[in-house]
Write a structure and sequence with these properties.
The complex is a heterodimer of chains A (242) and B (229). With 242 residues, chain A is α/β, with parallel strands linked by helices. Chain A contains ten helices and ten strands. In chain A, the strands form two sheets. A five-stranded mixed β-sheet of chain A has the order 2-1-3-10-4. Chain A has a five-stranded mixed β-sheet with strand order 7-6-8-5-9, with helices on both faces. Chain B contains ten helices and no strands. The chains are: A alpha/beta (242), B mainly alpha (229). Chains A and B meet through helix 3, strand 7 and helix 7 of A and helix 4 and helix 9 of B.
Chain lengths: 242, 229
């Protein structure tokens, strides 16, 4: 009987300890396209400070909805065009870098310039939803400013999010896709290639990390922002094409 | 009540509902045409081929739907082995088309359709079939008078599970159909889209719509169940 009580108490203590461990965690929410760089940043930060980081990914609309709905998030990573009009109260902002639009194609094809999109051999062009994603918006602007809108109108395949473009590029289901450099760097080995779109052809995409005014872990969040300004973090960000 | 007005006027939702019903209609026919013979065959014999087929058919129950979708995409896509045959031989491109949604509904619902039928055949039906054959009934008579009446409840139970499962299908449909607005966005995918972009009210209304469709399906199946006893 005594042994039973003791082991129960031990179990309870263990459970409490587990909970105590999670309370300290810093929560960062981000658009799904930033999974790779943010994962690496969080890992490095964790190793350096011992502060655990939980990462939440989704598309920006979903992430912002979750935060507005009361999810306990400390920091949010996204682009200015979506974060600023969202009405979220931010206590601090860190400029992380610039998002870059690229044109990518599957294996077995080769595009020499964006103008090749007008050629008949390109039958399907995947674009993330311009109304919901920043790279879709940028892609739309690029097509218009490069004078390609009319030529690709019947080839456009508008999909929900950037990762879907990656999938169809890998499977060869589309002949070209517009998406961000960060995602393309992650799938480089599985596709034919990519080229950068002239940044003058779309509005600048400013990636920023915002500290939420009602963040549960303000002190830890500020440490993360300070970490982002350091040389190590800058190197990681640059390596991921931001 | 005023909330229902934008819902009723939402052309995307209306079109998605129509598409969902069309997919469901064809999938139901396929469940009956393919599911019953397949379930009967799997229930009767213990061949190695049968076990392999049963395993393959059951895989969508185990795999995350997005993985099932990805595998099918690689098989049926432009560069996939099956996709090339279909495109070359029949001029049929499955990916991003209406048929990709039918396929997604069919593949995810099929294991649920065949299991009850398989179980029915394992049990007493085989006995009754043998008895009827011994008593001199023709195969056709056996099928119409013995097999079908006896497995009716199992068929309806399977159909019930399969139809409802395919109604809520998102992962495979997303991968194969592309979630293209106005073409391959079923009600379930529209719910997914609405949640994905933070439109929770719209998601709620669409969920109610899906609930209504499934209620209708349940009522129809119930009626069929009571129709003849």
């Amino acid at each position: 009987m005594k042994a039973k009580t003791l082991s129960l108490a031990g179990l309870l203590g263990l459970v409490l300890l587990l909970f105590a461990g999670t309370v300290q965690a810093l929560t960062i929410a981000a658009g799904a396209g930033y999974r790779r760089p943010l994962g690496e940043l969080a890992q490095r930060f964790q190793a350096e400070t011992g502060i655990k980081v939980d990462l939440v990914f989704g598309n920006m609309g979903q992430v912002l909805g979750q935060i507005r709905g009361g999810a306990p998030v400390d920091l949010v990573l996204g682009d200015r065009a979506f974060l600023e009009p969202s009405g979220l109260a931010l206590a601090a902002i860190h400029q992380l870098g610039q998002g870059r639009l690229v044109l990518a194609w599957p294996r077995g094809l080769r595009l020499a310039s964006p103008q090749d999109l007008a050629q008949p051999r390109i039958k399907r062009l995947a674009l993330p939803d311009p109304a919901k994603t920043i790279y879709g918006q940028a892609g739309w602007q690029f097509l218009a400013r490069a004078g390609l809108s009319a030529a690709v109108r019947d080839k456009l395949l508008v999909v929900g999010a950037v990762p879907q473009v990656s999938t169809y590029l890998i499977s060869g289901e589309v002949d070209a896709g517009l998406l961000n450099l960060t995602d393309v760097l992650g799938i480089q080995a599985q596709i034919g290639g990519h080229l950068m779109i002239d940044p003058g052809l779309y509005d600048p995409i400013q990636i920023m990390m915002g500290l939420l005014a009602d963040a549960p872990q303000t002190a830890e969040a500020r440490r993360f922002l300070a970490f982002l300004a350091g040389p190590q973090a800058r190197r990681i960000v640059a390596a991921h094409g931001l | 009540m005023s909330q229902l007005v934008p819902w009723a006027l939402d052309p995307v939702a209306g079109q998605a509902a129509l598409l969902t019903l069309q997919v469901l209609g064809i999938a139901t026919a396929l469940f009956i045409l393919v599911g019953i013979p397949l379930g009967a065959w799997l229930g009767r014999g213990e061949s190695r081929l049968g076990r392999a087929v049963e395993f393959l058919v059951s895989l969508p129950l185990v795999f995350p739907p997005i993985a099932t979708g990805f595998i099918l995409l690689l098989l049926l896509g432009r560069h996939g082995p099956l996709g090339r045959v279909l495109a070359g031989g029949l001029g049929l491109e499955v990916i991003f088309s209406f048929w990709s949604l039918v396929l997604a509904a069919f593949i995810t619902g099929l294991p649920l359709m065949i299991k009850p039928i398989q179980a029915a055949f394992r049990e007493e039906i085989q006995c009754l079939v043998d008895l009827a054959l011994v008593l001199g009934q023709t195969r056709r008579q056996v099928l119409l008078r013995v097999i079908l009446p006896n497995i009716r409840r199992s068929v309806l139970a399977g159909l019930f599970l399969a139809v409802l499962r395919s109604l809520g299908e998102v992962g495979v449909s997303l991968m194969l159909g592309g979630n293209i607005v106005g073409r391959t966005n079923t009600v379930s995918l529209e719910i997914y889209n609405a949640v994905f972009s933070g439109e929770y009210q719209r998601a709620g209304m669409l969920t109610a719509l899906l609930g209504a469709i499934s209620l209708a399906a349940v009522l129809i199946l119930r009626r069929l169940d009571r129709g003849r006893t």
